[in-house]
Each structure stands twice: as C-alpha cells, then as structure tokens.
C-alpha cells in the first residue's frame, strides 16, 4: 500500500495458493486504486513470461515462496520445487527483459542457530535447520552468483 500511496504503479502477481483474491480487493478498497492483478504461478515460466511482456516495470518484490518451516520438513520436495523454481524464473526473466531491481525476502532461518542475538545481515550464515531455510540460503546464493556473472 505504501508504494501505491507514494505514486508507484503496482502489479500484483500471485497464484493464490496461500491467499485469496480478498487480499487484493482489500488493498484496492483501502488505496482506492485499481491495481492490476494477474493470477499466475511463478513456477510456470511461460505463463509468467506473459507478465513481463504485458507490463513495463523496473523492480520486482519477490514474495512467491512457501514459508512454513514445519510444513517444509513434511513436504521438502514441494518447498524445494516451488521456492527455487519460482525464484530462478524471476531472476532469469528479469535478466532477459532487462529488469535490474529486486527486493528478495529472505529469512532469519539462513542463520541456523545463531551464537548471539540480535541477528544482523553481518551475522555469519550457518546450516539451516529446515528445507525452507535451505531454499532461502540457496536463493541468496543464486542471487549472489547471478549478480557476479
């Protein structure tokens, strides 16, 4: 809502697997803006590509990840599949379409069991304790490697 209130054009992309359209409708109601919404799974590269073709945008805020630590232990393959594939599609399509700015939502789980609190971005990473944490570490590595390429 802050981006909309600050005058930015926003497009919401979501597969609604962890939410429903009422969240989008609520943002529209509160801001009074007719925000474009595209129901697409970021893991479906060709469907997601159409968003890049249809909309001109300079930045991506990436929240398309499954996020329950406990569930990730029960469903590790689903978490690896969704979190890594969606992120890699975002990064590769951004590169293909010349879009350079991304905000990636990582997690404190990338620090494993930290030696001290509070945890900052300078805290050394430790092995994650769940598949969810592993996917966030891997996405950070993918982003770092992509920027270095």
From TrEMBL:
Residues 113-136 are annotated as: Disordered. Residues 3-144 form the NAD(P)-binding domain. It is an enzyme of class 5 (isomerase). GO terms for biological process: monosaccharide metabolic process. Gene3D superfamilies: NAD(P)-binding Rossmann-like Domain. Keywords: Isomerase, NAD. One of its GO terms (molecular function) is UDP-glucose 4-epimerase activity. It catalyses: UDP-alpha-D-glucose = UDP-alpha-D-galactose. InterPro entries: NAD(P)-bd_dom, NAD(P)-bd_dom_sf. Its cofactor is NAD(+). Pfam families: GDP_Man_Dehyd. One of its GO terms (cellular component) is cytosol. This is UDP-glucose 4-epimerase.
């Amino acid at each position: 809502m802050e981006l909309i209130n600050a005058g930015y054009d926003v497009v919401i992309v979501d597969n609604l697997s962890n939410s429903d359209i009422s969240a989008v409708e609520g943002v529209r109601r509160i801001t009074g803006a007719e925000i474009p919404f595209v129901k697409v799974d970021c893991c479906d590269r060709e469907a997601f590509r159409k968003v890049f073709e249809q909309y001109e945008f300079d930045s991506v805020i990436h929240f398309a990840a499954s996020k329950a630590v406990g569930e990730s232990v029960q469903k590790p393959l689903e978490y690896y599949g969704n979190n890594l594939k969606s992120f890699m599609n975002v990064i590769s399509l951004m590169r293909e379409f010349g879009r350079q700015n991304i905000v990636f939502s990582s997690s404190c789980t990338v620090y494993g069991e930290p030696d001290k609190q509070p945890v900052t971005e300078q805290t050394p990473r430790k092995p994650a304790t769940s598949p969810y944490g592993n996917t966030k570490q891997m996405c950070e590595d993918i982003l770092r490697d992509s920027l270095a390429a």
